[in-house]
């Protein structure tokens, strides 16, 4: 099964929610010109990542605005959308939440980032999610982790375990750790034998620059797409039969010994 993915590397304007909701539709329209099967967005594209005291006022209450926008867009355009992540206000707490929409416009996936990036005080401003989620898009088993989560092999393995073939990693990853971004994404694809679609933001927030370099790795670790540092839409085709191919040749999911992995 072959699928075309559109990676939207968006320049998010921190704190300008109205601009970001308007601009995201322009980028969706640009992505649709390539007739993709799945569109993917970066992390916290509604508010920007760098947290401030204003975050609860900027966050989307219960994700309603985001869900309404993407449900309608996905259904009207017959496309699956992994809507990156957005800042969502739930019961007086803000979560960094990713929603996935199928072609019918149904919310099929919801995941809130588990690991707040403590160097940026994300854990102070955002509440953490407690479990990974799994969903299907066009019959493909999928899962999502968000940015800093990729540093935690345990959570990515949990995301991979139920047969996940396509993992999404929306992010706002800075230039100063570009090499970590590239290596971690490649390694997580190899060690979990899945396609990994990593979509970063771009542009500056204060002194911190999101580095772009959105990328697609296949289960062998082959880099099928790497974008530059500027805003745009990256298009890539994946062949899902590669997952079965590698798992037949080197079956790590059969060979692993979780009963021995205790201290
Ligand atoms: N948005 C983030 O989670 C940033 C993570 C990061 O910069 C890092 O892990 O390094």
UniProtKB/TrEMBL annotation:
InterPro entries, per database record: C-N_Hydrolase, C-N_Hydrolase_sf
Pfam family, one: CN_hydrolase
GO MF, any single term: hydrolase activity
Keyword Hydrolase belongs to the record: yes
Entries under CDD domains matching the protein: nitrilase_5
UniProt keyword terms in alphabetical order: Hydrolase
Span of domain CN hydrolase: 3-240
Zinc keyword on record: no
PANTHER family named in the record: DEAMINATED GLUTATHIONE AMIDASE, NITRILASE-RELATED
Record family assignment: Belongs to the carbon-nitrogen hydrolase superfamily. NIT1/NIT2 family.
Name listed for the protein in its UniProt record: Carbon-nitrogen family hydrolase
Organism in which the protein naturally occurs: Veillonella absiana
